[in-house]
Amino acid sequence: MMKRHVFKFARSRMGFADFNCFLVDFETGSCSTSRNSDSKGLLSHQMNASAPRMCSTSCAKVPEDLPKDNPVSDMLLDSFGRLHTYLRISLTERCNLRCQYCMPAEGVDLTPSPKILSQNEIVRLANLFVSSGVDKIRLTGGEPTIRKDIEDICLHLSNLNGLKTLAITTNGITLARKLPKLKECGLTSVNISLDTLVPAKFEFMTRRKGHQKVMESINAAIDLGYNPVKVNCVVMRGFNDDEICDFVELTRDKPINIRFIEFMPFDGNVWNVKKLVPYSEMLDRVVKRFPDLKRLQDHPTDTAKNFRVDEHAGAVSFITSMTEHFCAGCNRLRLLADGNFKVCLFGPSEFNCLNSNMPKNLEAIRSSLWGRSYTCPLDFYQQCNVVM
């Protein structure tokens, strides 16, 4: 009989609805270069690893009272000298899929709509961060494209002086028809989640139809000139690990960046260590099929290890959330859909940014960053109660 693995995390306010975006851009992990395929041995190794490793198309109007200068501020600097220039904003807790690793079939309790950030609140808070040094914003959820005013939000944000990148992470179900307008409104980068190339497996995993719509969204993004179009794939043993090389084939003729993500534990998704396919194993499989795979130069703040197969138009990346830490270079901040601010996804510390007292907000942000850990404050295996 299979033994259950139970993880008890500190309070997180994420809820299941945020888990998909959590998976595709997770910021913490643990260090290992072991190629041991024994999952139980890998977990044991990780539990003993405690040391960090360095490693105008809209009727919307931009508010006139927003300041336009953006001097670099120490508000976004932590005690380790990391400047946090990347803000993720959750536009909604709702989602139009029910992915099995994300939420139960019946859904979850959501924050009441009146308590979700309004468009004006999103723009004002984003401006606070951009005017202090943030130059990249990613829109997440839930599923951000189901928010009715997403085009206006993009237009407002893209007009913030100092913002260089406005990105979105989406499941792609409704993206194809909305993307032309979103691009006109200033959206500069697209990440689309897709865990399988087999329609039947897609329906099994998401409990919804829509595989063809996701593929149409990927092609629509390519046709509109997005380069690369990032495709996020959570790899799970026994479900889609046999498709790894098929995903790599997508990079042959199209500017697609396939991003393989190690399966992550989270309270409620019945995580099983046997489903984890380590980065080293994924890499071995790709190299056997594509021996010309070559390492690319990563940016210090990258969460992914980047590669390219010779003569391929696209690239291949691995997000090693479970087996190799990348907390040391983390520059991400999170604004949740209810207005709560977090400096780390798994950190218990958070506060609500909707306080009208702006100096108080600024001081709270400074204090949160200054108290941030060098590695994940939960340290997965040391502060999680793991029942083997």
UniProtKB/TrEMBL annotation:
Its cofactor is [4Fe-4S] cluster. It catalyses: GTP + AH2 + S-adenosyl-L-methionine = (8S)-3',8-cyclo-7,8-dihydroguanosine 5'-triphosphate + 5'-deoxyadenosine + L-methionine + A + H(+). Pfam families: Mob_synth_C (PF06463), Radical_SAM (PF04055). Residues 79-300 form the Radical SAM core domain. Pathway: Cofactor biosynthesis; molybdopterin biosynthesis. Its EC number is 4.1.99.22. Keywords: 4Fe-4S, GTP-binding, Iron, Iron-sulfur, Lyase, Metal-binding, Molybdenum cofactor biosynthesis, Nucleotide-binding, S-adenosyl-L-methionine. NCBIfam families: moaA. PANTHER family: MOLYBDENUM COFACTOR BIOSYNTHESIS PROTEIN 1, MOLYBDOPTERIN COFACTOR SYNTHESIS PROTEIN A. This is GTP 3',8-cyclase. The lineage of its organism: Eukaryota, Viridiplantae, Streptophyta, Embryophyta, Tracheophyta. The gene is LOC103319124.
